[in-house]
Design brief:
single chain; 299 residues; alpha/beta; Rossmann fold; N-(1-d-carboxylethyl)-l-norvaline Dehydrogenase, domain 2; eight-stranded mixed beta sheet; four-stranded mixed beta sheet; 12 helices; 12 strands; 45% helix; globular; oxidoreductase; pantothenate biosynthesis; NADP
């Protein structure tokens, strides 16, 4: 299958490396420099060892929509600009898979003219070490479902994914995004504010109490019934990625904009619609925004 990947951050590099094992992958980057570097040196995956895979890369403005499947891996706050660039090139025969944190992107993609649109979530730990180098810190689940259109391309992707990078096709896209949103809402802002690894949220009894309070409030805003399932999700991710730093922690420490608006910002909007009081969510939202403001964040 011909696959285009838009966005060459940690997730874009990770997907391009693994999927190029069985598919014809082209990686679309924000800069010409990064595309040139990948074309010359390939993409390096760092795990127990290092391995390079050669694949073509092009600047994002050269995407023409001719792939069987295009996977969009840019951050939530970059998505509107990307959609503006590609909207007039969408091929009716092509399919799109969106892999953003939060749920704010649903209102952006619902009007796109594409035969099939999928959304998904990723639990793999990955850090971009340089423009063509990604460290795979921990394996996790990749879940995806149909947002609209046909299941065909998504099933083809899942059936031909590498064994150590499997993709689970599920029936309810909303449930996938809610599960990931809950995990992100608890782990990302707390680890970024406390400046700790994920596992410390469980190991430190005081941080754990705050995490559970934030979890309860998040589930209240989302009116989610199965609280035990979401509790297990948060605990499992903290345990599996105990020595990792969250993406929000990494973004703040490197002076980048975070996805707090797509995560806690989205929850604040939902709380306002439903008349739900959410002091923990508001508190940590403004803490992260304050850190962004103080740190002269770049996008």
């Amino acid at each position: 299958m011909r696959i285009g990947i838009i966005g060459a951050g940690s997730i874009g590099l990770l997907f391009s490396w693994y999927l190029s094992e069985k598919h014809e992958v082209t990686l679309y980057t924000r800069t010409v420099h990064q595309a040139d570097l990948i074309n010359r040196k390939g993409v390096t995956l760092v795990k127990e060892t290092e391995e390079v895979r050669k694949l073509p890369a092009k600047p994002m403005d050269e995407w023409v929509g001719g792939d069987d499947l295009t996977i969009i891996t840019v951050k939530q706050y970059q998505l509107q600009e990307v959609l503006f660039q590609i909207e007039d090139k969408l091929d009716e025969a092509g399919s799109l898979l969106f892999l953003q944190n939060g749920m704010g992107h649903l209102k952006l993609i619902e009007k796109l003219q594409s035969s099939s649109i999928y959304v998904g979530s990723i639990e793999h730990g990955a850090v971009r070490e340089s423009a063509a180098r990604v460290r795979h810190n921990g394996a996790g689940a990749i879940r995806a479902a149909v947002f609209k259109g046909s299941l065909v391309r998504l099933e083809e992707l899942a059936n031909n994914a590498p064994e150590d990078f499997s993709i689970q096709v599920e029936t309810d896209y909303y449930e996938i995004l809610v599960r990931k949103l809950v995990v992100n809402a608890v782990i990302n802002p707390l680890t970024a504010v406390f400046q700790v690894q994920n596992g410390i949220l469980l190991a430190n009894p005081f941080y754990r109490k705050i995490a559970m309070s934030l979890l309860e409030e998040t589930l209240c805003v989302l009116e989610t019934a199965d609280k035990e399932k979401h509790y297990r999700d948060v605990v499992n991710v903290c345990e599996k990625t105990a020595s990792n730093y969250s993406s929000m922690y990494a973004d703040l420490s490197q002076g980048r904009r975070t996805e707090i608006d797509a995560i806690l910002g989205f929850l604040i909007e939902e709380a306002e619609k439903r008349g739900v009081h959410c002091p923990y969510i508001c508190n940590y939202y403004h803490m992260i925004k304050g850190k962004e403001f103080q740190g002269e964040v770049v996008t």
